[in-house]
């Protein structure tokens, strides 16, 4: 009897175990491709192979990211679903899940980094738990009506996304100087230190300021190389397309044009989204659209949230919108507080329209968006000031007055920032561009004219359609007009941002505002559709045809094809994206011009000895913080322990400079031949002609550069090398005086008053060649 009971118990236990295995093994198995891909992209030597060798390493690298990217997108979506399930128990849209998930991860990564627990084991463990939790909801996908226009536009969209993914996301950015020295290095430091806080021997404060609040990137960088920032940007690129699709469904009043137009709403909205993502430019100073932005930066993250905020304040508010507005506004401002200016603009537009509509729920949502941004600003500025000693270095002139010199001196030099302000104020043109207003008016007219042309053409086609293929049933039912508030918010936002970046000569603002390019097709289509609504109200018989919506979809498809071929596809072809996926090394890519071999050569010839470059700042960009070199080998001009001692090295005496450099372990000094781009420490008194002969010896010389070291009783510097270096340094000062009328370095060193007059700013072009 007992034996039989034991057998039954064992059988029941085995059945439970079998049920558990059958339930979970497919979910566990689904993570195997991701695990293999993570292992491959993190292999030692992968980056070197991508740069110099290519071949199968590059091919498998591309394949690994193709496999990994859906998992990263799934993690963001799953986090959004988890957040909603914990706070708001109501149905959500996929676009809300994405952005709320991204905001939750931004704040989580920020928090983990502040607590110094950004370990890959913790991050991957939490991510696995979230994905396993989300996998419980896997089931039969919802079926939607499949039509030929929908299939055609979907294929067009997939083609666009595939080309942008291969061209901008998969290929590591070895072109942008900012990504290499301001973005990727901080992500590498976070992965090394498991924290957002800076290491004393590598105080990259500017990277900290722009990067420590981007928690989603920080989380990903703990278990993936810094290149993951480009993949995250691509996911935001897709998110922007999804938001434009939802906005088009809201602001285009197609339902007021008749049933057939309403049936065509989804493919039309998808076509407008494709046009937005592929839209090239709207002003001469902006030479490209979203598809060619620097994906290694954070601009696409903020752009995606900005357009999502438009969606939140436009649609009828629900509880989910209040959660999304609050958490996303907080996350965006916390990532970088100055972004709150755009959030305030969107919040104000929402408040204005909701007050007019007497929509109390929508008013609360818009207010929560602004309040979240305020809270994020306070959080970010407070952390920056308490840690760095300055709320932000941009705009520097505003925050310099309240900076704590003692606290900031632990990370950098305010004297260097003073030098930057002086040099940049001498270099840029007037802050306010009077011609910008005229250009803005001209651009606004062009948008209205395009919209009018679209409306007129559609009316003509609809008229012919109504005569040739009449369908009287489509005009018998009067349809209510939708709210025009959404169109107003989109147009007002685009106009406000474009007016700002066309009238204010601020390069950073222009780069940040590129995202409004994606909204121009939506704005033009909205104006055209509302014009058609007015015509239909006056002459309803014009819209009594059967096939005009199909013609509109066909024309939209043609426009999308032309736009993607002439812009994103052309960029894809010119950048050699297919060649990279086929195994071409990065240094052989068409637009790569920087000398990466120099970095490798310096590493091989000097080992772990640190090198201070006296000139050739732009030429040395690939070597600053390069993963090819030992950490901190090539000393960065304004972000390093050497830059932190700028007052002793560059502004002090030759003896003080030598003592400080020796105490920091700096033994080697790089001087590039035929390059007058001396910068900051290169103008120190210790590198004057007389001091060169007395203090330095020649470590090595190539046809391209000299490498100096301390003399230490050895042979003095040869007269030829000393004369060559001195001539370059003297010519550099002459060029600065020719360009600025003064020497910016001497102004900072001797606390002089700048005369504020430029002589010939084009003379700076001679720095790279010394002509």
Automatic annotation (TrEMBL):
Chain segments annotated as transmembrane: 24-41, 62-84, 104-133, 145-166, 228-252, 264-283, 295-314, 323-347, 367-387, 446-469, 481-500, 512-535, 547-569
Record keywords, A-Z: Membrane, Transmembrane, Transmembrane helix
Superkingdom, taxonomy of origin: Bacteria
Coiled coil segments of this chain: none
Protein name stated in the entry: Transmembrane protein
Organism (species): Bradyrhizobium nitroreducens
């Amino acid at each position: 009897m007992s034996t039989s009971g034991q057998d039954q118990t064992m059988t029941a236990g085995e059945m439970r175990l079998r049920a558990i295995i059958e339930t979970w093994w497919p979910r566990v198995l689904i993570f195997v491709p991701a695990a293999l891909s993570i292992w491959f992209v993190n292999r030692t030597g992968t980056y070197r192979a991508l740069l110099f060798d290519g071949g199968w390493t590059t091919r498998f690298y591309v394949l690994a990211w193709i496999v990994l990217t859906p998992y990263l997108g799934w993690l963001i979506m799953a986090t959004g679903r988890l957040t909603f399930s914990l706070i708001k128990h109501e149905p959500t849209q996929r676009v809300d899940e994405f952005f709320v998930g991204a905001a939750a991860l931004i704040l989580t990564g920020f928090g983990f980094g502040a607590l110094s627990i950004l370990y890959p084991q913790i991050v991957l463990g939490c991510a696995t738990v979230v994905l396993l939790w989300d996998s419980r909801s896997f089931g039969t996908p919802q079926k939607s009506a499949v039509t030929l226009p929908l299939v055609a536009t979907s294929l067009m969209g997939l083609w666009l996304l595939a080309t942008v993914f291969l061209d901008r996301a998969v290929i590591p950015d070895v072109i942008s100087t900012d990504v290499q020295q301001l973005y990727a290095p901080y992500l590498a430091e976070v992965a090394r230190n498991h924290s957002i806080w800076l290491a004393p021997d590598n105080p990259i404060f500017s990277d900290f300021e722009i990067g420590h609040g981007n928690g989603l990137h920080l989380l990903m960088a703990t278990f993936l190389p810094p290149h993951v920032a480009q993949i995250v940007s691509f996911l935001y690129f897709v998110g922007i397309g999804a938001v434009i699709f939802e906005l088009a469904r809201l602001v285009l009043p197609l339902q007021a044009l008749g049933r057939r137009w309403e049936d065509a709403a989804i493919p039309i909205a998808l076509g407008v989204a494709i046009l937005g993502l592929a839209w090239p430019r709207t002003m001469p100073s902006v030479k490209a659209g979203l598809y060619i932005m620097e994906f290694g930066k954070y601009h696409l993250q903020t752009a995606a949230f900005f357009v999502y905020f438009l969606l939140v304040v436009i649609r009828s508010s629900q509880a989910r919108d209040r959660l999304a507005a609050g958490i996303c506004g907080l996350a965006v401002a916390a990532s970088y507080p100055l972004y709150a200016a755009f959030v305030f603009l969107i919040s104000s537009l929402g408040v204005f329209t909701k007050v007019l509509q007497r929509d109390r729920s929508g008013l609360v949502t818009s207010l929560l968006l602004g309040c979240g941004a305020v809270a994020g600003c306070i959080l970010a500025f407070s952390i920056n000031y308490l840690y760095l000693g300055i709320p932000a270095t941009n705009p520097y002139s505003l925050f310099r007055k309240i900076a704590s010199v003692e606290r900031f001196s632990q990370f950098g030099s305010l004297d260097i920032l003073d030098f930057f302000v002086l040099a940049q104020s001498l270099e840029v043109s007037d802050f306010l561009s009077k011609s910008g207003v005229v250009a803005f008016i001209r651009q606004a007219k062009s948008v209205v004219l395009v919209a009018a042309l679209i409306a007129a053409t559609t009316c003509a086609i609809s008229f012919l359609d109504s005569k040739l293929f009449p369908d009287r049933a489509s005009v018998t039912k009067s349809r209510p007009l939708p709210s025009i508030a959404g169109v107003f918010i989109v147009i007002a936002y685009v106009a406000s941002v474009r007016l700002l970046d066309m009238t204010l000569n601020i390069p950073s603002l222009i780069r940040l505002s590129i995202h409004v390019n994606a909204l121009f097709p939506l704005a033009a289509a909205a104006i055209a559709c509302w014009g058609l609504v007015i015509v239909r109200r006056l002459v309803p018989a014009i819209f009594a045809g059967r096939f005009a919506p199909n013609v509109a979809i066909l024309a939209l498809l043609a426009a999308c094809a032309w736009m993607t071929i002439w812009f994103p596809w052309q960029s894809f072809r010119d950048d050699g994206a297919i060649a990279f996926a086929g195994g071409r090394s990065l240094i052989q890519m068409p637009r790569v011009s920087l000398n990466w071999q120099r970095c490798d050569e310096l590493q091989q010839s000097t080992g772990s000895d640190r090198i201070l470059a006296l000139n050739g700042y732009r030429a040395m960009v690939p070597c600053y913080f390069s993963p090819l070199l030992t950490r901190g080998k090539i000393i960065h001009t304004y972000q390093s322990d050497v830059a932190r001692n700028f007052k002793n090295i560059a502004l002090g005496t030759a003896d003080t400079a030598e003592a400080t450099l020796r105490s920091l372990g700096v033994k080697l000094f790089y001087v590039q031949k035929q390059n007058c781009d001396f910068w900051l420490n290169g103008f120190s008194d210790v590198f004057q002609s007389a001091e060169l002969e007395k203090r330095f010896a020649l470590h090595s010389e190539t046809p391209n550069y000299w490498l100096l070291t301390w003399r230490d009783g050895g042979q003095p510097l040869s007269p030829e090398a000393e004369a060559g270096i001195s001539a370059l340094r003297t010519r550099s000062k002459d060029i600065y005086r020719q360009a600025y009328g003064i020497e910016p370095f001497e102004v900072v060193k001797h606390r002089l008053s700048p005369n504020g007059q430029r002589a010939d700013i084009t003379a700076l072009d001679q720095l790279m060649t010394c002509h």
